[in-house]
Amino acid sequence: MAPCAYLAPARDELQPLDHPEALPLRPRGARRLVCVSDTHCEHGQLVLPPGDVLVHAGDCLTESGSRHVSRGRPTEAGLAQFERFAAWFGAQPFENKVLVAGNHDGVLEALGPAAVRATLARAARVGSVHYLEHETAEVAGLRVFGSPFRVYASVNRAFGTPRPFAGVPRCDVVVTHVPAVLPHWGEDVEICALLARCGAQLHVGGHNHWAYGTYRTSCGVLCVVASSSSNDWVMNPRKLEGAGGGPRGDPADRLRGGYNIRSPPIVVDVAPAALEAEAAEAAAAEVAALAFTAVEAPKP
Length: 300
Description:
Largest sheet: 7 strands, mixed
Number of domains: 1
CATH topology: Purple Acid Phosphatase, chain A, domain 2
Strand content: 15-25%
Distance between the termini: 66 Å
Strand order of the largest sheet: 2-1-17-3-4-7-8
Oligomer: single chain
């Protein structure tokens, strides 16, 4: 597995990079987003390249069933798993981090957004953590909307009651656990309508491990499917890999199976819409000034 994959501006194809040092210089005014998703308690296996914003598009945990949530409340084991993830997430060297939950994150759903944010804040050692549950935040100069809510065809159905996207303000980046578009499956009509309406430049999702990569929606918005785990649920404990050869993030994986990390983080550079508008205005003013000078210049 390459350390990361880079998506150059105005390109659709990922460029695998063997070393983070091979990343090109960030374009002037842009923010560098490092995108991951579906880490399923195995976040410790990831090696993250540098960037401005770390984006996690959901499924930080392994299971949302009764093993982690009982009678609407998280179990002790479920809480411990989320706290381990929060400690890792909060220690990553990014000034800003964005987390959206997924259908496996029943512990987060049971806790509620206030308790989730409190847990993340306690664990934050570097920068700011933004947990988005169908809401928008200003992140490193970017307006980011995030939501975990969708209908999930899975036994893990946390956040499985859809919420309308009406009223979402203009934003630069949309993060939902479900991708906006999938090969051979087509588009999520509501998410794509949101992207067209809010003027987003980038959509980040996960959920469908097999679809790791980048795609364009019919309205031209780039969709990154940043699923970090392989598509294969592994039951053989000898084939379950822990971080650095150590124990699994969920000890019960030995009996119940789990996923292995297979896909590298995806790095994308995004310029805030406000900066792009300022640059366009400055360029137009420069052209106008040159034209005025040409008209007014005295003849020799």
